[in-house]
Amino acid sequence: MLAVDSLTKRFQGLVAVDRASLGVPAGSITGLIGPNGAGKTTLFGMISGFLPPSEGRVLFEGEDVTAEAPHLRARRGIARTFQIVQPFAGLTVAENIAVGAYLRHPRRADAVAKAREVGLRVGLGDQLDKPASDLTVAGRKRLEVARALATEPRLLLLDEVLAGLNPSEIRDILPVVRAIRDGGVTILMIEHIMQAVMTLCEEVFVLAQGKMIASGPPRQVCADPHVIEAYLGKGAAARMKAEEIAHA
Amino acid sequence: MSARDLLPLILVLAVLAALPFLGLSGSALNFLVTTLIIALAGLGWNVLGGFGGQYSFGHAAFFGTGAYATAVLQMKFGWNAWGALGAGIGLGALVGLAIGYLSFRAGLRGSYFALVTLAFAEVFRILANTADITGGAAGLLLPLRPGVASLQFADRRLFYLLVLAFVGVALLASRWLERSRFGAHLIAVRENEEAARALGVDALSVKLRAIALSAAITAAAGGLYVQYFLYLDAGVAYGTWISVEALLAPIVGGIGTAFGPLVGALALQGLGEVTKHLAGGIPGVDLVVFGACLIAVIAFAPQGLLGLRRRRRTVPVGA
Ligand SMILES: Nc1ncnc2c1ncn2[C@@H]1O[C@H](COP(=O)(O)OP(=O)(O)O)[C@@H](O)[C@H]1O
Ligand SMILES: [Mg+2]
């Protein structure tokens, strides 16, 4: 469904993303992991059209969308959430979601009905008429997901929607993510919480210092020495191996 | 829009329509016409500034364009008043589009946008003050020609009703913004442009349509102004006075609400009138009161006068 082909993003001198490629099969939940500053959010920015890539291409359903504006990609069916939540602070929760719903429902009554339905689905049912600024962190993350979902996307890009949530909030939101996929939406998610990645994703890609260093089923990727080194520093994999042998 | 959405609007218009038939003096009627013209200019400003969050400090550019087009097309090209007024409104919208295109394409926001609009209005003022077609510094005096075709009524109440009709249309447009997809997109751009774009909103096109509508409404106010007073010069048409009035009315009344500009214009003009009577001798005392009001509103009622009432009840979106 989505193919990222050798994307590079340079900010002045800094190479934030360096010839990274990935593929997301239709109907999957695919993970994108990597240490802080690896370039994950930057990669999302290029997939959703907010950042023009320095090099490389983005293909959505076989079509080259590299040069397309964000709103046109949204119309094609690419929706994203923001790692730093961006609520319409002056509006209610339902009004926030309705902005997304208007994309496929020009009439107000339809858009509002759709917004309420989506709000219910992500667990914001009893907060729909509150100002968005009154929501907790967990509520705002849900609102990000709800707004994106209300555009009725085919591909949903989730940028760390679990970050900042406590374990019970995470436990509550995991089934929501899975239900979205089961409803026919393909998902690409950036996530730090490995437990969540393990339970949700069929395949993960690992980005470190802008480069894609590994990909595969989550269990296999987590055992990959390159990945361990990227997270824990040089020589970490060898040290762990040595410790394992010592314990055995 | 449902009948329930329109009921308050119809009631307000009905009350305002009845006012001049309660035996008002000529000066009271004058006051009402001026206030409604300012309310109309404010309703225009509110479309872009209130709903769209793009604060213009130069709506005089549109007011003056509407006014000059209405006057010049009649005086120098022999148009009838209605056609000239219509063309003035269209030209105002075009000027809005041009200014919007130049500033929004360049990504100007906030005080930068405010300054650019102010600069445009000032350039227009200087040009109008020197050009021949606008009568230069001497200004234009529309010939007295009573009749429906020339939009000059022997009974001033008819002109008042005409201005009120324009205010009604602008209120209707504002109400529509509160209830439509376009309005939701405009408000979303105001609240967070990036998030709006992620949801499929073409932010540039939304802002351009908003500034065109905003400019058209304020240009209508300019056309009606010259048609009522039959005199125009550059300072009146493109002066900062009207830029300030157009933004003060919605800010004081309730920014981003349909009725805010009307309430604000009535409150401010009323207050100005009262102070002029009480302290008539002191020149500019009404301006001092204006400034004091603005400070009071920003400090104590940032949502404007209507916000004071609204604070106690929240309106569910589905209602
Ligand atoms: N707009 C920008 N200008 C300059 N540098 C940026 C910009 N956005 C991100 N970066 C840099 O690019 C790198 C990758 O950032 P980011 O994509 O946010 O990483 P991640 O989401 O994986 O934590 C970081 O070093 C960050 O400082
Ligand atoms: Mg990030």
From TrEMBL, chain A:
Write the record's keywords in alphabetical order, separated by commas: ATP-binding, Nucleotide-binding, Transport
* Classification lineage: Bacteria, Pseudomonadati, Pseudomonadota, Alphaproteobacteria, Hyphomicrobiales
Query: According to its UniProt record, what is one Pfam family this protein matches?
Result: BCA_ABC_TP_C
Instruction: Identify this protein by name.
Output: Lipopolysaccharide export system ATP-binding protein LptB
Q: Which GO terms describe its biological process?
A: D-alanine transmembrane transport; L-alanine transport; L-isoleucine import across plasma membrane; L-valine import across plasma membrane
- What organism is recorded for this protein? Methylobacterium frigidaeris
GO CC annotations, alphabetized? plasma membrane
Q: Extract the GO molecular function terms from the UniProt entry.
A: ATP binding; ATP hydrolysis activity; L-isoleucine transmembrane transporter activity; L-phenylalanine transmembrane transporter activity; L-valine transmembrane transporter activity
Where in this chain does the record put each ABC transporter domain? 2-234
From TrEMBL, chain B:
| The keyword Transmembrane belongs to this UniProt entry's keyword annotation | yes
- Segments crossing the lipid bilayer: 27-48, 55-75, 81-104, 158-177, 210-232, 244-267, 287-308
* Pfam families listed in its UniProt record: BPD_transp_2
Predominant place of localization? membrane
**GO molecular function per UniProt:** branched-chain amino acid transmembrane transporter activity
Keyword Repeat attached: no
Question: Entry's InterPro entries?
Answer: ABC_transp_permease, LivM-like
Can you say where in the cell this protein is located? Cell membrane
List the record's Gene Ontology CC terms alphabetically: plasma membrane
Organism domain of life: Bacteria
Protein name according to UniProt? Branched-chain amino acid ABC transporter permease
Q: Where does this protein come from, organism-wise? A: Methylobacterium frigidaeris
